[in-house]
Amino acid sequence: MSITIFSQSLNGEFDIEQFLILKGYTEKVDINIKINKLSKIELSKINQDVLCPICRSQGSIIVKKTKLKQAHFRFSNHKYFCDYNKSILKELKTSRDIDFSKFRGKDRTAQTQIVRKLVAKGVEQGFFSQKDIDEMRIYFYKSKEDSQFLMDVSKTKLDWFFYLKSLNYKHFSFIYNHFKPIYIDLPTFDWNEFAQYIFKKNNEKIIEKTSFLSFINIKVRQQIYEIIKSTENKLVFDVKDLYIPYKNTIELTKIIVSAFSKSDKWVNSDIFLAFSALLLYISEWDVSIAVENFIYILNSPEPIDINEGNVIGLNPFYNFEAWLAISHIREVVKENVDGFDFYKQLETIERELKDKYES
Ligand SMILES: [Zn+2]
User: Fold this and answer.
1) Which residues pair with 236 in a beta bridge?
2) Residue 189: left (phi > 0), alpha (psi -120 to 50), or beta?
């Protein structure tokens, strides 16, 4: 369910109540009564006008308010990568809507109060509006559409990549580093260890490249394996062009959070990431401009109307590290010409070493 829609005639994004008011249905009655009063012709006109706020597909129906959900438009034909496409794999969703006035998360009250006020100030001072957020949403969606490929990273390739990555940090004893045949007589001499040392030497250049992404921790690694498993040979996207926006958003979020909290636990919070991404989007992803804008907003007078902060933002980097890692892994994989069965390669090296030195 999308909270908002894009109206072609009004050239902007609105929820259904705002939309109907702006279209002249100003009667102060319950939203369901308002919807019931719409004629077939009016409904058909609305249907022509209203588009999905992300993928811009047409064909919506109005769903009335219930006890659990507010009234909204429902689209039946979202495009493949649209975050509102229900049939899409959850792994392909990389953004999250963030209601700046009703953020749900840990410490939500404190965080919401801070960010909502910043957003209200930013809107009043003319830094950004809902329109910028809509444009940002389209920017991220388009980038997915423009970079699609069939998932070609297999589990075998991943195992190979992570083995190489582990070699990056592996320390080998002096006896392998400065090998002399007599060392074989040491009781601790290990042929497999020696084979790994040679393998590392043979693959030095490519192994160096695996060190590029430092954030691949156990959690991200597990996520990568899950993504690969569920998307193999399916249409996915490459996020490499979003690396700078991502890196800069993390950088800026740290600076913003440090203005309010000594601990950095809010750095991964959706609401701060959403605000930070918005500031960077209007600053063309330039951190120094975004920091200046942040300082200006922070020090500007209290907002006249805090409701200006009732805006639906977007954290565009949800699940992002795993996708960024996959993009990088693909690059490294492409450079390998020796196959991915490293166990077999190690066995061959070990056999050759034994043949050469054991006699
Ligand atoms: Zn859509």
Assistant:
1) 149
2) beta
